[in-house]
Amino acid sequence: MKNSSVRVFSLFGIVMLCAAACANVAASTTDRAPLVIKDQGSLIAGGTVTAYPGTFDPRHPLKPDGQTYHGDHVYAFYQIPVDARPLPIVMWHGAGQSAKSWETTADGREGFQNIFLRRRFATYLIDQPRRGDAGRSMVETTIKPTPDEQLWFNQFRMGLWPNFFNGAQFDHSYETLNQFFRSMTPNTGPFDMEVVSRAVAALFRKIGPGILFTHSQGGGPGWLTAIKSRNVKAIVAFEPGSSFIFPEGELPAPIPSAFDTVKGVAVPMPHFVELTKIPILILYGDNIPDKPMDLPAQDSWRARLEMARNWRDTVNKHGGDVTLIHLPDIGIRGNTHFIFSDLNNVQIADLVSKFLAEKHLDR
Amino acid sequence: MKNSSVRVFSLFGIVMLCAAACANVAASTTDRAPLVIKDQGSLIAGGTVTAYPGTFDPRHPLKPDGQTYHGDHVYAFYQIPVDARPLPIVMWHGAGQSAKSWETTADGREGFQNIFLRRRFATYLIDQPRRGDAGRSMVETTIKPTPDEQLWFNQFRMGLWPNFFNGAQFDHSYETLNQFFRSMTPNTGPFDMEVVSRAVAALFRKIGPGILFTHSQGGGPGWLTAIKSRNVKAIVAFEPGSSFIFPEGELPAPIPSAFDTVKGVAVPMPHFVELTKIPILILYGDNIPDKPMDLPAQDSWRARLEMARNWRDTVNKHGGDVTLIHLPDIGIRGNTHFIFSDLNNVQIADLVSKFLAEKHLDR
Known about the structure:
Chain A is an alpha/beta fold. The first copy, chain A, has helices spanning about 15-20, 110-120, 150-155, 175-180, 195-205, 220-230, 270, 295-315, 345-360; strands at about 35-45, 50, 70, 75-80, 90, 125, 140-145, 160, 165, 210-215, 230-240, 245, 255, 260, 265, 280-285, 320-325.
């Protein structure tokens, strides 16, 4: 645990110093056992194709006439360890993030990719459609370099800029924040729950039965993916951000917050019941207020956690199996919005492994 | 070798069929030995930071006032095998591509990532600044879904759409082209040789001495990277696209083609001489015409290959060590622009390994 009074280092002026002297992450190999990988690689699933009318003229190749465009697919980097457990884990990032979320943490420790490979799970790390290496979007977009990192520092509950929360499970060094901010990568097309869930369902059709980990914005389309593909055998959702799926006629009242109003999404009952057929674990971290407050970042999570509890109760009322853990309730303190890469991420992985074992998903 | 008369399958109508039935790439594990990885993860290097004037107000976090923005860095996914050779290989993609270039090939075979890991090289696969998982750009851009894939089919010398070249080293199935087209991912900001070479030089400062593989558009900034960082100990350039670096006063005449005019880039002699201090291998594939022709795609490569020969001669005249191999000259036929992922990519890897051994870069 570190002290909340540590301020973020001055961001300006030490950049050049850091370029020369800071974390040589790759060199920090350890005495850990090696990863023994039976097979690894990448693949692409789902997506759509358009064709421009006319005939392609190889002498005027810059004209779109008669040309095609493939987009809105998902990219996945997979690794299958020797003696892998039967169900792989598909890891799905949140808003403004990519597969990087699950790789090396911002302070240079192992992320969930390596941790779960060591626990003999095959892993599939995705870039969702219109993000990262899956950037070809069927819809035009403009990307502006708008300064927004203090928003994210607060929204991701590292603290209240420029102070970290007391005991925040996030390293306080400049280089860690530098790596963290640079892990963000923009949408190359509008975020669309249908588009991304359709592509990830196509991935599950390709790879077969598996477990889905989602983070934040990935939570909502994660539920839709389980509705679209019965190959989703379980979901572990890290701080699902919004877009909880309810049966038509059972939408709870919207929950206003200082940031926005959190609303459920209604689907027909035959779709909703798919979510009652699989075990689901939802985890939320620390520094989420119990009562409304006027700080948008924190208050947004109060409203989301409340909606998540409504959703758990609704799914379980219909025969589902949703477990929601607010980590401070079991004595785990200081977690940010990035529970799986926080300083205590091995403890969090243990919690997830326990869940997977209890639900017989690890054999 | 496959027959040039095979046309590309109808792109429309079999998409849904393929989604259900086509290549289950991940499941195609083989009898190969496992990869034994001592350490793996990702890191970010280089880039710049801006700060918007004013004071950040946590109650109005969507205002840019007092907020920062980090961008123009490079992302790298690294793997270090057990008993690794001393020099790692940094693999740099071309235009419209990402780290995916070096992973699984479009037809599901192992790419250079796995092939060189098996040969005990550590590998660093990058997304250059303003691309893929390194998407935060300091300059605004608009991304349009413009149909252009028949241009690329020709430009990358798979054939003359919709026919493959006779003996093209590229699988002719629909799903291979589907995977290939979907491997493209857009710029999230303008391509800038200085920006990308500065970031990759920062990566070499972090990781220490290494070998640089470049592809196509990566070639030009690859030369600049070697000028910026003496940690670049050798370059293997696969079909460098343009932007060959000459000393001021020694620029050769521009070479017009049916596509564009290829020009050298002038730098001061003290910069240029850095390129004479390291061994460099340049490889070009097949179906590059000897004489001018009116098809832009192929003619562009005639001009580039000619400029590459000029460049080899200039560097070697100044005491350099550049080897240029036009593969058909040594009897290797059918290679496209993606030499390292073509059907004969193990043969190509052998050629590269031979070069690295001759130059004592593998010990």
